[in-house]
Amino acid sequence: MFKSNRSRRLAADILTYVVLCTLAAFCLGPMVWMFLTSLKPEADIVTSQMQYIPTHITFENYVAIWTQSNFPVLITNSLIVTTVTVAICVVTGTLAAYAFSRLVFRGRNNIMLGYLLIRMFPAVMMIIPLYVMMRTVGLVDSRFGLALAYTSFLLPLFVWMLKGFFDAAPKELESAARIDGSTRLGAMVRIVLPLARNGLVASSVFIAIAAWNEFIFALMLTTGQGSRTWPVGLQLMVGEFQLPWGVLAAGGILSILPVMLLFAVVQRAMVQGLTAGAIKG
Amino acid sequence: MRRVSMTSNSRRHPFSSLGEISETRYWVYLLLLPSLLLLFLVVAYPTIYGFVISVREMRLTRPGLNGWVGMKHYISMMSDRVFWISLKNTAIWVAAAVMIEMTLGFIAAVALNRNLPGTRLFGVLILLPYFLPNVVAGHMWALLLDPRLGVINDILVRLGFLSSYKAWFADPNTALAATILVEAWHGFPFFALLFLAGLKGIPEDLYKAAAVDGAGSFTKFKLITVPMLKTVITAAVILRVISLVNSPDLLLVLTGGGPGNSTQVLSLYAFQTAYRDFNFGYAGALSVVMFFILMVFATIYIRLSRITKE
Amino acid sequence: MATLSLKDVRKSYGSVQVLHGIDIELEDGGFLVLLGPSGCGKSTLLNIIAGLDETSSGDIVIGGRSVSNLPPKDRNIAMVFQSYALYPTMSVERNIGFGLEMRGTSVDRRREAVARAADMLQVTHLLDRKPANLSGGQRQRVAMGRAIVRDPDLFLFDEPLSNLDAKLRVEMRTEIKRLHERLGTSIVYVTHDQIEAMTLATKVAVMKGGYIQQLADPRTIYERPANMFVAGFIGSPAMNFLRGRLGRGKSGWQFMAKDICLNLGRSKEKLEEQEVILGVRPEEFKVVHHDIAAAFHGKIDVVEPTGPDTMLTSLIGGQSVIARVGPRFAGRYGDDVSFTVDPTSVNLFDPQTKLRITW
């Protein structure tokens, strides 16, 4: 079919770019369309003649979602829940990941397997008892309660991801520090944590995104304004107020903005940790 | 017994006593305790409690109804038409989504693995949908496929594939397929990510050796790529199956199980039973059944992870 | 500076015992090499001495003080690791001074001590750099600087030269020997390289399967190995093992096999007529041209000149033998060849127990 290796290679390269461009269009197209929609006035969206490029660019949808709904409150709630979730995971998960990575103890593999098995638990199965429990202790409709519920599936994920990064930091460095006069704690704080800093950031960002995006737990466990997060709020706005498409699109764009930003910053380390964790696990 | 040793040159420091503890064998328990305690509270206890709820009557709307009912929920499940529909839909939904995602993911991984200029950017772009919230992804696709203003309808009509706009999510014949498309869009980057990592782990020499031996592209693919990716493929499939079975988010946003249960799946059914009807007992029983279905996958999963352990 | 004694040190991981009752005494200022193939337990033993790993039973005494229950930081030891284990985020200066920093030494005294150590190892010009910007040999020097700066009771070296290329390895080996002679601190050194063991040690512990096979000075280890494992492990090319019989001849005991008749030259020793294995080092073979005096008769199989000498593989009565002969050896494949051997240089081993027969 092809005369030479060179033309065959060229054809393969062209095919590769065609495939990549198609996939990228498939991935990005919907997002671009949502973005374009968010810039159109409502009249241009519901028009019978499809408008591909907005003729009148407007930011009224963004103004509307921000000023005429409780979107700022929702975003604030989500920020708080996400921060608390990450804080709990970082404090408790870092210690556990360190123990799994560095110390040999009885039952180590079983406990690690247990952390992994939690992934198997249906969210729904956790939600019902958690709802009943939280109602008993008054944590329903509380931002802290929601964050606590998030740790049930994010903490194991965090521990596994971070363990991978700890494993990558040479053990001999720690031995050297201990011989140089550090305690185990000192070696962990001075040597291992600084080395695994990127991993710590990547793992934290990963669970931050997951907490930010979470919908089902939030839907069940929040009942009022006090703790409702943006995915729940946005969903309920659609149902209750027949939210116009443009405003909805603007809300969507606003809420994925932080995700995109965080992802862009630590994308490389996160991908590395995600694949390592998943393949090893 | 190991004793905590205090030496003359250990300085007074806020961490110094904690540091001394870190040299004893109690250290490991101290490290594990916080997370184990937390997970006991938010995972172990609720799980056990979940089993208990499934054999009780618990309806928040009717507080008077309370008490043990044994296997009642499980028995009524057997004659629950919606349960069987959900089970069937779950199987179709998961199998079809995984198949499409795997194919797309593999194509993406192979293309990215050729390391042509610009692939890093493409890699990031292709990964984006995976990090998009389900709520946004759902509404975004609802907009794209809208029966009145959906751009996809418009394109298909213009290209001549459709004679008029179609209500994809309202037609029982296309609703499930449409949700699978959305799920595939959302989930295929996960496969691309893992496959790419797997492909990068295959030594280049193997392909060179095969080429020297006269193997063509297809033979190389069949005899080197697929066997070398085996563990990655199985791990990815099982992880993805678990997350698909477990999360009703996207369907909740897109169709709510309708029209007429045509997109009802187990997780959504259980959630709605709890969230809408407040029938916690029956919802609990449904999720316990889901859990056991997943346990079948779990056993396979553990076996496979044993193989890949260092 | 201190003595080191290990008393019946045992270690098991679960049901797997990796060290079986290790007893070692090292004199003050001694240089102990733990030598053995990978998986023999030598690194575990070193980690136990360092306190990085716990013993299952037994005692470790450094300078008369039992340290078994002390964490590494309180044992007053220093260690050089195979991967050098330099802290990547710190400068060379801080790397070297880290041990002093941890012990609260004042900045001035620290700087002075670091400067002295850096001078001794010729790394003064590197003090401001980060480890990533150093070559392998430089990293090795910095790692050693970090060890000597604290003036510990005991140095531990864990295969310190195995990441270096051949030329640098010889250079650093000399450096370690010089350091030991200058500082006089006791050293425990783990390696699988028998040349390092021979050149550096005052005492060698050859280990295999968690047991010490022989503990002695290098000369004894080389000339009078306790068993066939030690004999085969030390020396390159390895000692030749020849199967044969021990019998009584006219002038005393004789080793006999096909095409071999070696007079051992002694008559009174308590030997028995039995099957034995004769161990001969390659350099003990002397080529002779008048057959009558020769003890070994064979045919040349392979001739390999290495420069300073020639390795000569011959077949003697069906047994293959490697001899190290002079560089100007002129023989070819298929030629007849005869050797003599100084009977005092050979060793006899029991084929069943593999132990050396003393005589």
UniProtKB/TrEMBL annotation, chain A:
Lineage start: Bacteria, Pseudomonadati, Pseudomonadota, Alphaproteobacteria, Hyphomicrobiales
UniProt similarity note: Belongs to the binding-protein-dependent transport system permease family.
UniProt main location, coarse: membrane
Keyword vocabulary terms for this entry: Cell membrane, Membrane, Sugar transport, Transmembrane, Transmembrane helix, Transport
Membrane topology: Multi-pass membrane protein
Keyword Membrane attached: yes
Domain ABC transmembrane type-1: 75-266
A single GO cellular-component term on record: plasma membrane
One GO BP annotation of this record: transmembrane transport
Gene3D superfamilies: MetI-like (1.10.3720.10)
Name by which UniProt lists this protein: Multiple sugar transport system permease protein
UniProt-listed InterPro entries: BP-dep_ABC_trans_perm, MetI-like, MetI-like_sf
Transmembrane residue ranges: 12-36, 79-100, 112-132, 144-162, 200-223, 243-266
UniProtKB/TrEMBL annotation, chain C:
Membrane topology: Peripheral membrane protein
CDD domains to which the protein is assigned, alphabetical: ABC_MalK_N
Regions that span the bilayer: none
GO biological process: carbohydrate transport
Compartments where found: Cell inner membrane
Gene Ontology, cellular component aspect: ATP-binding cassette (ABC) transporter complex, substrate-binding subunit-containing
Domain of life: Bacteria
Pfam families named among the record's database cross-references: ABC_tran, OB_MalK, TOBE
Keyword entries, A-Z: ATP-binding, Nucleotide-binding, Sugar transport, Transport
Any one Gene Ontology molecular-function term assigned to this protein's record: ATP binding
SUPFAM superfamilies cross-referenced by the UniProt entry: MOP-like, P-loop containing nucleoside triphosphate hydrolases
InterPro entries per UniProt: AAA+_ATPase, ABC_transporter-like_ATP-bd, ABC_transporter-like_CS, ABC_transpr_MalK-like, ABC_transpr_MalK/UgpC-like, Mo/tungstate-bd_C_term_dom, NA-bd_OB-fold, OB_MalK-like
Ranges for domain ABC transporter: 4-234
Signal peptide start-end: none
UniProt similarity note: Belongs to the ABC transporter superfamily.
Protein name: Multiple sugar transport system ATP-binding protein
Origin organism lineage: Bacteria, Pseudomonadati, Pseudomonadota, Alphaproteobacteria, Hyphomicrobiales
